[in-house]
Amino acid sequence: MPELAVVSLSGGMDSCVTAAIAKDQGYELALLHADYGQRTQEREKQAFRDIADFYGVPDHRRLVIGFDTLKAIGGSALTDDRIALPEGDPERAGVPVSYVPFRNAHLLATCVSWAEVLGARAIFVGFVEEDSSGYPDCREAFLKSFEQTANLGTRPETQLAFHAPLIHFRKAEIVLKGRELGAPLHLSWSCYQGELEACGHCDSCHLRLRGFREAGFADPIPYAYLPPGLAPR
Questions:
Q1: How is residue 215 annotated by DSSP?
Q2: Who's near 30: CB < 8 A, 6+ residues apart?
Q3: Which segments of the chain have a pLDDT < 50?
Q4: Strand order of the sheet with strand 28-35?
Q5: What single-letter DSSP state applies at residue 164?
Q6: Which CATH superfamily, name and number, covers 4-215?
Q7: Predicted pLDDT at 229
Q8: Are 49 and 84 in contact (CB under 8 A)?
Q9: d(Cα 198, Cα 170) in Å, to the nearest integer?
């Protein structure tokens, strides 16, 4: 019997490719998605369902969790409409306003709880540190620390291994890895504010478009706007 892995699947490109890697490594997938009041909550959830369907993940290994507390706490442009999302600039210094305070700790804790119930041996996350928006809870040091905490706080036999296979990838490398593994990139959704078409303005769109351009491919999802210099060659 293949071992089971819990994959945190937002529906974005990074988590989509992470699920493809877990599948390629021989794991059976259990997919977890978080609704925390983000601007594109419904579109991301659709991407989660579409990717789960693509990989044939049964309903009992799909879990959508609501983190209403993160919406109530606020402090992020993704959860508070009063905070404007700036024009995309992947080179902007500092932690961006799209950072949701300590979100990934909530996500990881929920993955651990579900993994312990399911008897999973691994947790996969699509964290990207080297070519990302600069979120502090996407760093490798944070993930390693959380893995230690999780294994201290669970049953002795649980022994979870945390995997972030894209942590040191650039976006172009993620695109190429996804294409190599046949990941359904056309089903993924990365935009922070558009649901019918990706906006083309936010940091996430800029990072994704830059990755596809550097990889030499057109992004298969629709855009309302293509920034100069990021349109396909």
A1: H
A2: 4, 5, 6, 7, 57, 61, 62, 63, 114, 115, 118, 120
A3: none
A4: 62-66, 28-35, 4-8, 122-124, 161-163
A5: -
A6: HUPs (3.40.50.620)
A7: 87
A8: no
A9: 21
Q: How many residues can be counted in the chain?
A: 233
Rg (alpha carbons) of the chain, rounded to whole number: 17
CA 184-110-164 angle, 5° bins: 50
**Percent composition of the chain: helix, strand, coil (DSSP 3-state, to 5):** 40, 10, 50
Residue 225 Cα to chain centre, angstroms = 23
Give the orientation angle of helix 103-118 with respect to helix 140-152, to 10 degrees: 40
Rounded to two decimals, the pTM is 0.96
Amino acid present at 156: P
Structure tokens at 214: 């550097």
Pairing relationship of beta strands 122-124 and 62-66 according to DSSP bridges: unpaired
- Phi, psi angle pair for 60, to nearest 5°: -75, -10
Enter the DSSP assignment of 136: G
Using CA atoms, how far apart are residues 46 and 44, in angstroms rounded to an integer? 5
- Which residue's structure tokens are 């706007």? 225
How far apart CA 26 and CA 210 sit, in angstroms, is: 31
Q: How far apart are CA 186 and CA 146, in angstroms?
A: 32
Domain edges within the chain:
4-215
Q: What is the pLDDT of residue 131?
A: 64
Tokens of residue 21, six digits = 């890697």
pLDDT at 103: 95
- Neighbouring CB atoms inside 10 A of 105's CB total 13
